[in-house]
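---------- Forwarded message ----------

FYI, see the ATP-binding cassette, subfamily B record below. Original note from H. follows.
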Amino acid sequence: MKKGKEVPYSLGDNFHFIYANMWAYDKSLIFYGFAEIIFNVILPLCTVILPSVVVGLLERQAGIEKFIQTMVLVFLVYSIVSAVQTFLTSRNRNQYIDIRLNFFSIILFEKCFSMDYGQLEKEKTREELKKSGDSVYGNWQGLEGFMHRNVSLLTNVLGLLTYALVVGWINPVFLLLLLVLSVIQILVFHRAKLYEHKQKNEMSGIRVTQGYLQEQAFDLKAGKDIRLYQLDKLIGRVYAAANNRLKKIKGKIRGVYYVNDIVEILLKFLRDGLCYGYLIYLLMHGLPVSDFVLYLGIVGGLAGWMMKITEDLSEIGRCHYMICDFRKFCDIKDTFSHKSGRELEEEDMALDIVFDHVSYQYEGSSDYVLKDISFHMGKGDKFALVGVNGAGKTTLVKLMCGFYQPTGGRILINGIDIGELNIENYFKQIAVVFQDAAVLSFTIGENISGVPGSKINREELDHAIELSGLKEKIDGLPKGTGTYLNKDMEESGIQLSGGELQKLLLARALYKKAKLLLFDEPTAAMDAIAESELYEQYQDLLRGRTALFISHRLASTRYCDNILFLENGKIAETGSHESLMKLNGRYAEMFQVQSKYYKEEEDETEESMA
Ligand SMILES: Nc1ncnc2c1ncn2[C@@H]1O[C@H](COP(=O)(O)OP(=O)(O)OP(=O)(O)O)[C@@H](O)[C@H]1O
């Protein structure tokens, strides 16, 4: 396997990609990154300079007053440098988390929400998506890991070059003292950890919410509805609110850790002061200066710097591959126009649809699902699409939605090739009820309207609920349309039955006031009464709009102007219910089989009642 093929971007490319985006997101990230590197090196330098200053003073036999003054000054400088370094590390760490969550993760979300649905459905894309998701998950891997590791590498390289004399002194006399100081430090740290642990429950609750919302971005079922009902904004808001809550908790935890950091600095200050004091004491009692300096040198950790550089390099390599995964996914090309393309006229109440010799073959499949399909749905027409399982009905609907590009032929919407349309503008004009439609675990009102509670048009919401037959159910709920669905977001959320869910999906399609409505088995889960009531109302519900619906219950086709009977990927018969019955072909055969079944069912019911 050629390596060049596997890794589409060089390390330099990725370096540029990350830092150009950091620059675009927040220029201060670069400056603070450099500042951290400098202070990371200055800090140990201070600890090297400190003893040399002490040696200089002693060698020059400075007076005690001058000595104390200089010591205080040096320790003061050291403390300031240390505090600044701690601040920079903490700031950068949080800023890198911020850019990962609020910039790079959003790029990934947006890509998932907006990319061609047909592309998102492919297995290969889904694998790439999984890998890409990993690259924005966690602090020490992928994109964020790359930022941390670059700072660490540059620090260690600079440190190695300049930190020739590592200052430190370990003496058995001090071992006990150091242990005591370490225990104090551990206790303070433990307190901070305990506090963090206490926040875990709330944090994991928020993370479950975030996880659920992230799943919606990756979920195929949700993907269709997110596009068609522009739910990305609603999800985005809830995600941002969860992010903010998490940010607040993290801020409090950071505060506790900051106290810990300050205690750590003070203890370090005390520890170093005692070490140096002792060395000075020894020096003043006969320890040669050369030994003194030597001791300081050997405590140094050149080996430590080296080890860290090795570790950084290997981690940067790992992160680089993950950035490649991220970029590969984000660079997947769309075949539809998303931000550009032609927009449909606003004034139209309905759309005109032409399938002109359309064929379709799924990638990797040897057969065509649809072959040479041609028909014309004029503005306001109501069509039924029928056929046996697997005939290609859903595929045809997905083509009409703009989820797939036809393999052959053209689809014209108001005379414009669907490939030339701004597909996002087109999505806004259509409503689809899929067999496997997804609802979000938000409120009923938000699910129907696709907007946050405060922005819902109450009158239109009530109207859509009434038309869909869901009014009685919602009136019986204490929180009405403010009731949450499922339990992902709210403990008191409710579970709708299959039929109720279909009514809710219908209400959503009606609320949208779409110009083209597509129903894929919209009543499959409804009881016979609800179904017949709905069909009775269809003419009124869809007046003036173009509509196509798939139903296996052929009784429903009577309400349509035209029926397309699909068989083996072709339109085998087309016409009104009456004309197809007269033709006495496949449609009539299917209808008679169903009528017989209904008749038998009716007889059985009558017998059991007798
Ligand atoms: N994403 C896909 N990749 C490959 N093949 C697919 C895909 N989706 C559907 N097919 C195949 O295309 C054919 C038509 O499927 P489609 O779902 O369009 O049929 P249908 O008429 O809607 O069926 P049903 O009445 O059962 O809902 C089936 O053989 C199916 O296996």
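H. also flagged this: Strands lie at 353-360, 370-377, 382-387, 408-413, 416-417, 430-433, 516-520, 546-550, 562-567, 570-575.
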